[in-house]
## 1
Amino acid sequence: MPHVIVKLWPGKSEKQKAQLAEAITKDVMDVLGYGEESVSVSMEEVEARNWAEKVYEPDIQSKPTQLYKKPGYDLSELP
């Protein structure tokens, strides 16, 4: 714990996904104080044509209180 799920469009290389997972793991360790053995990261590729139905509506639009970075907003604008 924690487990981070990254949903992204297809087309990124395995190297890019591994680098992202490494960066996320490091940040989770630094910010939350967990050891590397406690952090897991997965990547779920979602086609652009399915993004609204499979990601935007269920994960972003319907869960505003769980969203800490909104699309199109600067991080400094969040409470």
Note: Strands lie at 3-8, 40-45.
## 2
Amino acid sequence: MHRFHRNHLTSTSGFTLIELVVVMAILSILGALTLAGLSGAATKSKQETTEFMINRLNDAIMDWYEDYEDLAKPGGLVTLRRRMREEMPDSWAEVFANPASPTTATGRAYSRYRASGSSHANFEKYQSAECLYMIITRSGRFPDFLEDIRPERIGDIDADGLKEFWDGWGRPIAFFRWAPGFASLVQPITSATGDPMDVDSPPADLSAYPLLPLIYSPGPDEAMNDPLSGPDGYGLTTAASGWPDSALASICTFNAGGSGIVGSPKPGDAYLDNITNHDLMAR
């Protein structure tokens, strides 16, 4: 009787524990790289959207600003600045509550628009952004502006019935009609160049800063995005003094509370990713 010996051949199939750990580590790294790439692409897309919005708004505002420059005449600076304040307000304090009070049709249109949201608790929360939207849509000067703007770039973040233009991160785009002393390549912190609309010879106020509009977003970090976040609102510091020319002191009060001259970016690095019309114009 033959005895058969069966050889049991053992073979190992599948992964060892170490191999599984290595594979999982590789997949984790690839996943992280993919997410980082997607995040970077999303941030770039939002930045490009913001730049498009600010460029469009800057083109509109600066076209009107240049029209004011054409109206400048000796001895007429105070009158011109009053008109600019009425037609290009950056706070609700500059918009007449009574529609019968403004001297221009544009000012009367603004008064009616202001009334639609003035009773809301959040009425003054994002007023510079709301005034910017009002200027574009209620002044009558830009009838085709909204044709190129996607609906999601317009909103009402504080639900007061007064809309704002939004940046790529869904936050209101800020607006200062006059930003003297704001540090940028377009407008350095210096009073040496004077006020371009002061055409008196010699200029009535040799210490005046250029008064160029400022339109901007706080960028990806959204730092200093809320105008109620403190005295630095929107990432700008303010000087203690007001406008040096006594004749213009009641007109050129900067910021909603008239707290002084808008200054350079806040110390530190929070402002470095801000997106402004000044930067875009300097490119």
Note: The mean pLDDT is 78.
## 3
Amino acid sequence: MAKKVVATLRKEGAGKEWTRIIKAVKSPKTGAYTFKEEMLPAELAKDAFKA
């Protein structure tokens, strides 16, 4: 599935402007960690980790 996503984002160099961010988020209910995955423009990647 990841290959298909990468292939669709590679239209004339447009795929290089996106960043995949994976965060570990702790559940307040169980205390277990889950992973949240996002695709963001490269210039917003640093701001996503600050929030």
Note: The helical segments are 2-9, 45-50.
## 4
Amino acid sequence: MKELVDYIVKGLVDSPDDVNVYEENAYGSTILEISVGGDDMGRVIGRRGQVINSIRTIVKAASTNSQERYTVELLES
């Protein structure tokens, strides 16, 4: 799942080398934390959060067959 989020976010931003996706296991679920360069933060968030919410929806749909629960968070740099 980490690779999927990394692929999507790198396609959205101007500087894909600054994209990092961290994976943490906590409280029975997996947290995917996205870190991007300061100039690309708006591209990942989108208008009224539409882009980040779409990424969350894709992750939820991709994980329906697995027993893992995933949470996607965007870290401020």
Note: The helical segments are 2-12, 41-45, 50-62.
